Amino acid sequence: MENTVKNSADYGYCNDGKVYLKGYSEYPERQIGVVRNTEDEALQYFVNRFTIAENKVSLLFEQVEEAQNKGSYLTKLLQLRKNLVEFDGLGNFMPLLERLDGLELELRELILHNQIKNLEIKRALIEELREASKSEEWAETTEAIMEIKTKWLKTGPVDKSLQDGVEEEFNGIVDDFFVRRREYYAEKNRIIDEKLATLQRIVDEARNLRYEKDVDAGFLKIKDLQREWKTISQVPPKKQSQLWKQFKRSSDFFFERYNRDKGIVSTPRVDPRVQQMKDMTTELEGLFKQQDLIPQTSEKAKGYLVKWKELSALAKNVDRSIAERFRNICDKIFEMNYLLRVISYRHPALHEKPRIEQLKIMINQMDYMTKKEKNELDSFISDANYNGQMGDKLVMNKINTQKRKISMKETLLIEFKKELEILLDQ
User: Fold this and answer.
1) Hey, how many other C-beta atoms are within 10 angstroms of the C-beta on 377?
2) How far apart (Å, rounded) are the C-alpha atoms in residues 284 and 114?
3) Within 13 Å and on the Cβ side, how many CA atoms surround 68?
4) Confidence at residue 3, expressed as pLDDT on a 0 to 100 scale
């Protein structure tokens, strides 16, 4: 301790109950504390405190070494140097300050290098932005501009003397694009509002024509309104649909009056595709009654399913009851074909047996298959519940498909039993 205290004389001393740090470099001598007990204890205390300053400098160097963005530590370095020259401790501050001076120079060179690099990146982004903003594909361009803006925000600062200039140029291009986009949509909305106003006028005029006394003049006016309606396009579908229903209701009302006055009997136009779908359904229902033709009917039903999808995609206003009839008869044919195929392994000459015997065999087999599939479905549902899969779309589709198959088996089973009961009562 004696040596430490003696060495402290190089950096400070005690006088009149006070502890002083000697001046060094351009920093003057200053008081850093008071003597509370002995002068040696006071000097040793401030010698020990000097290690705090050393540790802070060492810690800063470690942090800079580990940091990716080293330049961000410049402010912390400048604050540490300010704190060092005001720090109350006894020791050689010059090596510490010189280390900080060296590190500051490195950081400033690094920052300058990064600022130059950032300026290059930002100028490239400005050009990319300028080119992208020329497009009038508003949705895609907006997305592209937001991506460029994200890159801009992730790019570090440039030299302060240039910062305001590049920011102003970048933001000016962005603002100009969004002004043009706003003006485009404002004009688009104005045009749409005009078109909707025109459609509303057509609807109102058609409504006023419903009780037109001169039906010939009214007929011509309605036709003109229909032609004018066809010239209006690119309006919101939902709003157009609402107005079209109102217009059609008034038009149909007028044409019914016109036909009555002229003695015209109108025949509803049937979509040939809808008629074809009805014919397919009726044909399959007739073929189902011929049990010996079920295998061939099943193949035909498969082809009709493909055809039905093509027609339903093109046809409008398909009656739901027809669609339900078609699906039911297809399910019936497929289940019947499967039943007969299973039975054929044990009873290859089923068609040669009396009808009562056929029905008994079919009832026994169908009853067995129905119970078996019910048990399998119950097990599947239990497993799905246990595994938390009941919300899965594919799982639910499989469950619904199996339920429909089981339901059709039960329907056929009831029909078989009724037919058997009738035959036994004869």
Assistant:
1) 16
2) 79
3) 1
4) 41
